[in-house]
Amino acid sequence: MVLGVAGGIAAYKAAELLRRFTESGHDVTVVPTASALEFVGAPTWAALSGKEIATGVFENITEVPHVRIGQQADLVVVAPATANTLARAAHGLADDLLSNVLLTARCPVVFAPAMHTEMWEHPATQANVATLRERGNIVIEPAEGRLTGKDTGKGRLPEPAEIFELSRAVLVHGGRTDLVGRHVVVSAGGTREYLDPVRYLGNRSSGLQGYAIARAAAARGAEVTLVAANVTLPDPAGLKVVRVGTTAELRDAVVSAAAGADAVVMAAAPADFRPTGVSEAKIKKAADGSAPTIELMQNPDILAEISHHRTKPGQIVVGFAAETGDETGSVLDLAAAKLKRKGCDLLVVNDVSGGAVFGSEVNKAVILGADGGHVDVQEGAKSALAEVIWDQIVLRMDEQPTN
């Protein structure tokens, strides 16, 4: 792996990213620009990577580093990627070691931009980003927040932990960019329906699977909107995150984001019911020990709504079913009926008997297709299931007739 570091104030954060790469077993060659070394010196990179740092095309010339480093890489990550670095990469300049590496690399390349908002929004930068993406590179959307000095806005380097996770996803699927130019919507987490200012009806969904699905889509080049219901996880790198609480809020956010989306994956667990009224004061215990009666009403069926009222021709809709099976049928029997009733294209079925899946780092599932497809996904990391889901979505996108 190659970690390119450009000359921005966020260069210090690349040290944490490097640590994450090396501690997970990757062999990392750090290629800092001359400007980057003004922020973080070569001894730091050498100590963390365990390798001497090459900074120029004429160092160790017998090994031809400006060619060899890029040729041997399985992944190149540039973090931070300044406006200058993006411009040089887009125009194929080769005036330092990092730009030479980018020209010789035939592996996936991930750019994590960091710059002031005005620089990111400038038409020249946006044109360069578009060019790089058209060539199959992954350019992460910068985060919003505190910049250099007192400035705030879009242009902040995403957190190193999230750049690491996205980079790992790129390695998992071999750098496929089959979602470039696609806008996808993913929901995650579990909704809450309040009884009073303190209590609510909810469920055990952690949002881990939805976040893995969103992260995998971004790693394959998609523009991703993540609608997160009561999730405490950090925002994945390069995504637009919309936070919601109740099922009604989830419905409004998903319907709005789904307008014009190429795919919608409803991985969130919305509450099926909500109280008919919410007490303005905390509900007190009765002196006689009796329990209050709570009247419930049914929540809107978001999956059925977006499946039956699609806003874009060819839009793919994916639902999730957490089933336990009962006297009326097995898990797959109930899921097959749900797939037909909801009208979605794919249904990811989890057997949650005994509380399985919720909050776990692993998952196993059966993916049912409205076209009769049936894919068994053995137990593994939730990120692995996410890749299979996108494989199935892309397959159906590719089958759509072109105009």
Automatic annotation (TrEMBL):
Keywords (A to Z) from UniProt: Decarboxylase, Flavoprotein, FMN, Ligase, Lyase, Magnesium, Metal-binding, Multifunctional enzyme
Residue ranges constituting the Flavoprotein domain according to the UniProt record: 2-165
Involved pathway(s): Cofactor biosynthesis; coenzyme A biosynthesis; CoA from (R)-pantothenate: step 2/5; Cofactor biosynthesis; coenzyme A biosynthesis; CoA from (R)-pantothenate: step 3/5
Reaction equation(s) it catalyzes: N-[(R)-4-phosphopantothenoyl]-L-cysteine + H(+) = (R)-4'-phosphopantetheine + CO2; (R)-4'-phosphopantothenate + L-cysteine + CTP = N-[(R)-4-phosphopantothenoyl]-L-cysteine + CMP + diphosphate + H(+)
Region entry Phosphopantothenoylcysteine decarboxylase, spans: 1-183
UniProt superkingdom: Bacteria
Free-text comment on the cofactor: Binds 1 FMN per subunit.
Annotated signal peptide: none
Enzyme Commission number, as recorded: 4.1.1.36, 6.3.2.5
MF term (GO), any: FMN binding
InterPro entries: CoaB-like_sf, CoaBC, DNA/pantothenate-metab_flavo_C, Flavin_trans-like, Flavoprotein
GO biological process assignments: coenzyme A biosynthetic process; pantothenate catabolic process
Cofactor annotation: Mg(2+); FMN
Residues the record lists as binding CTP: D272, K282, P300, D301, I302, L303, F320, K338, K342
Region (Phosphopantothenate--cysteine ligase) residue spans: 184-403
Domain DNA/pantothenate metabolism flavoprotein C-terminal: 179-394
Gene3D superfamilies listed in its UniProt record: CoaB-like (3.40.50.10300), Flavin prenyltransferase-like (3.40.50.1950)
Cited function: Catalyzes two sequential steps in the biosynthesis of coenzyme A. In the first step cysteine is conjugated to 4'-phosphopantothenate to form 4-phosphopantothenoylcysteine. In the second step the latter compound is decarboxylated to form 4'-phosphopantotheine.
Homology family: In the C-terminal section; belongs to the PPC synthetase family. In the N-terminal section; belongs to the HFCD (homo-oligomeric flavin containing Cys decarboxylase) superfamily.
Xref: PANTHER family: HOMO-OLIGOMERIC FLAVIN CONTAINING CYS DECARBOXYLASE FAMILY, PHOSPHOPANTOTHENOYLCYSTEINE DECARBOXYLASE
UniProt-recorded name of the protein: Coenzyme A biosynthesis bifunctional protein CoaBC
UniProt source species: Nocardioides panzhihuensis
Gene designation per UniProt: coaBC
